[in-house]
Amino acid sequence: MALLLAGVLVYAVVRSLSANKSTANRNTAPGAGSQSRSVVPRAPEKWALKQVIEQGVSTDTLAFSPDGKYLAFDGDNNLVLWNIETGSVQSTIKYANITHLEFSPDSKTIVTSSTDPHIKIWDVETGSLKQEIKEGSTTIYRAVFSPDGKLVAFNDGQKHIVWWNVQTGEIRRSRGEDDAYYLNDLAFSPDGKILASCASYGAEVKLWDVQTLALIRELKGHTEEIEAVAFSPDGKTLASGGWDKQLKLWDVATGNLKQSLNNVERVGCIAFHPDGKIIAAGGFDNYAVKIWDVQAGTLKQTLEGHSDLVWAVAFSPDGKSLASGGYGKDSNKTLILWQGIQP
């Protein structure tokens, strides 16, 4: 009997150890368990003014680094790197007339477009110029990194959208489009397969196949110039806004219009929150930033504090902060940081 009980006990212990090991393997497998899954930050219910940064007469472009350490913006003919943790300037690069800037996905470099017209890639740590390319002879308004960091897309001022492979130096161009000369905004889909563009004349958004450079479709519904486009984090929705005071949400797969939001004022810039549930839109008329509920299509909050046109908005990667920039009167209130508040 003692031998039988001992055997049963050993069997039970072995089964328990085996089960625990199996559970541990499941919890540490890719995509399993809270530690291995990417946590999507929840959008705050409200936003409050945190800090006004006075670094120039205007802030036309800004971006958070993907690692959340820095906010980069143009100020007084400088490329300014702002340290989020210290709340102060980390470094500046003397470079005038920047029209757009964006961090690479690894946060190690910044690409800029300008009125030169040059596309330049800067080293974030040293501030040195790493790469440079000149295209055309007119202003380049946008230069954006692909999600894998291998490509930079921009307009060449000669009716083309240009794809520059920053690793190999290869240049590819779209077919000639009249409105490509006057591009207002460009945005890659999160998977890097589609590039969206909008122009300063023509009231449609164009979707391009990044691999073939072919035009996939045009999204028609706006009645005036479109200033900004942005993909939702899941890539299923594209937002567009412009001078017709409409903020439109499109189904990327079908090209169908999902919602049209009456923004009351002209839209100069838009950005999705990392959780995709809210969208921020900067305005040209009331100089405010509006926060919209994407699912309900309702206005959640209006952020007032700017003294002139709002040209740029961006959410921090952790979803807790919002930056907005634009023109300022008397060099005041050109860049504002907003803090998210949870109930």
Describe this structure in words.
It is a single chain. With 343 residues, the protein is mainly beta. It has a single domain, classed as YVTN repeat-like/Quinoprotein amine dehydrogenase (Methylamine Dehydrogenase, Chain H, 7 Propeller), CATH 2.130.10.10. Helices cover 8% and strands 47% of the residues. It contains one helix and 28 strands. It has a four-stranded antiparallel beta sheet, with no helix packed on it. The chain has a four-stranded antiparallel beta sheet with strand order 2-3-4-5, with no helix packed on it. The longest helix is centred in the N-terminal third of the chain and has 27 residues.
Highlighted features:
343 residues; mainly beta; Methylamine Dehydrogenase, Chain H; 4-stranded antiparallel β-sheet; 1 helix; 8% helix; globular; disordered N terminus
Structural class: mainly beta
Low-confidence stretches: 1-37
Radius of gyration: 23 Å
Order of helices and strands: HEEEEEEEEEEEEEEEEEEEEEEEEEEEE
Determine the number of helices (DSSP H or I, runs of at least 4 residues): 1
Query: How would you describe the shape?
Result: globular
CATH superfamily: YVTN repeat-like/Quinoprotein amine dehydrogenase
CATH topology: Methylamine Dehydrogenase, Chain H
